[in-house]
Amino acid sequence: MIRSVQAFRLKGLQCFCAITIWTAASGVCFAADKFPVPEARAEQAKNAVKATLKDPESAQFRNLYTKSFTGNPPRPNLAALVSVCGEVNAKNSYGGYTGFTRFYQVAPGDAPVKWGAEDWENSSFGFVCD
């Protein structure tokens, strides 16, 4: 009787471990799809980023996108609320371009976060944009 209880516990532990490993592995395999940002939302994000630059008029943007975990583009009624990821290049105090830098803005009105502006060891950048 004791052996059958121990065997049952061992089988339960093995099943738990198998399910845990499968769940973790399947989470890594699912990639989020990237979609174009609605134009009005893109302008909001660009204006927020420009407000943080030394020379906002020199700003050049590229690779603007939003991420979807469902595989579908944002619904029209929620398009104004999507997060925006992209790259910006602008002139510094010396008048030279600094090179494209990644940024994201989670929601309209939020301050944009630029690459290197926070502790990337604890960053949410990968969750929002990658």
Notes on the structure:
The protein is an alpha+beta fold and 130 residues long. It folds into two domains: 1-30; 33-129, no CATH class. It has helices at residues 2-29, 39-50, 125-129; strands spanning 33-35, 60-68, 84-89, 101-105, 113-114. The protein has a five-stranded antiparallel beta sheet. The radius of gyration is 22 Å and the shape is elongated. 15% of the residues are buried. Residues 15-30 have low confidence and may be disordered.
Beta-strand content estimate: 15-25%
Measured between the Cα atoms of the first and last residue, the distance is 52 Å
Query: What global shape is seen?
Result: elongated
Q: So how many helices?
A: 3
How much is the radius of gyration in Å? 22 Å
| Sequence stretches where pLDDT stays below 50 over 5 or more residues | 15-30
Which strands sit side by side, in order, in the main sheet? 1-2-3-4-5
Structural class comes to alpha+beta
- Give the beta-strand count: 5
Mean of residue pLDDT values: 76
Major sheet description: 5 strands, antiparallel
Q: What count of domains describes the coordinates?
A: 2
Which range best describes the helical content: under 10%, 10-25%, 25-40%, 40-55%, 55-70% or over 70%? Answer: 25-40%
- Strand/helix succession: HEHEEEEH
